[in-house]
Structure formats: structure tokens, C-alpha cells
Design goal:
Elements (H helix, E strand, L loop, with lengths): L3 E4 L10 E4 L9 E6 L2 E2 L5 E3 L4 E3 L3 E2 L2 E6 L7 E4 L4 E3 L16 H11 L9
Antiparallel strand pairs: 1-2, 3-8, 4-7, 5-6, 8-9, 9-10
């Protein structure tokens, strides 16, 4: 299991916010740390995620992510607007299928596409 911590402004001497997270992946599984600059994309561009392809947003944010080497999505990361997200494992008895977007895909998409004035819908 992974651990995540956030120290808010009132908890630090200098008023900074601190984010920390460890990985809950298999011990031998390599993590890739990537810096991806912001980009603009032509209309109707497609984006290949872990298992499916979706419509690409017109612009992407600059991001830094950590992800399993075999997966498109990210376990943790930050974007140019100061948004920081870390994934937590959810244990379920439902069968796992290689369909749709993974939780890590959603994390990377949020970092890549959200601005400070947007929010994820539930």
C-alpha cells in the first residue's frame, strides 16, 4: 500500500505546501519520471492512453509525472498551474478488465488538461 501526505501552509514554517508520496507498485517494476512541455494539437487529434484512444484536447499543460514503465497514465505528478495529484489504490473484488481509462490515465489527463479555473466532475 502507498502512503501520501500533504503539509498545508499553516503546518509549515515558511507557509509552503509540501506533497509526498511513495509508490505502491511491485518492487521490481520500473518507474519513469517524465517532464512533458505544454503543447498545442491540431483539431481532431487522437490520444492513445493505456488501453483506449480518446480525443486529444487542443492544448496540454506542462507536467512532471512518475508512471509505471508500461503504462500511459501516471501514479503522481504536478502541472504548470501548481495542481499536484497522487493516486491511491482501491481494492475491489470486481474483475479487472483492460477496457476504458485507468485511474492513472485519469490522473495524467487531469494534470495535462486542467487549468486552475477548471475542476474534475464527479
Amino acid at each position: 500500500m502507498c502512503d501520501t501526505l500533504v503539509a498545508v501552509k499553516s503546518a509549515t514554517v515558511d507557509g509552503s505546501i509540501i506533497f509526498g508520496k511513495n509508490s505502491d507498485r511491485e518492487p521490481g517494476e520500473a518507474q519513469v519520471v517524465e517532464h512533458l512541455p505544454s503543447r498545442t494539437y491540431p483539431p481532431y487529434s487522437r490520444l492513445r492512453c493505456t488501453f483506449i484512444e480518446i480525443e486529444q484536447a487542443a492544448r496540454s499543460n506542462e507536467i512532471i509525472i512518475s508512471r509505471p514503465f508500461w503504462m500511459w497514465g501516471a501514479e503522481m505528478g504536478a502541472n504548470e498551474h501548481g495542481l499536484v495529484i497522487g493516486k491511491e489504490a482501491v481494492f475491489t473484488k470486481l474483475p479487472v478488465r483492460d477496457l476504458g481509462l485507468t485511474g492513472m490515465d485519469l490522473l495524467r489527463l487531469a494534470l495535462k488538461e486542467l487549468s486552475p479555473h477548471q475542476r474534475l466532475s464527479s
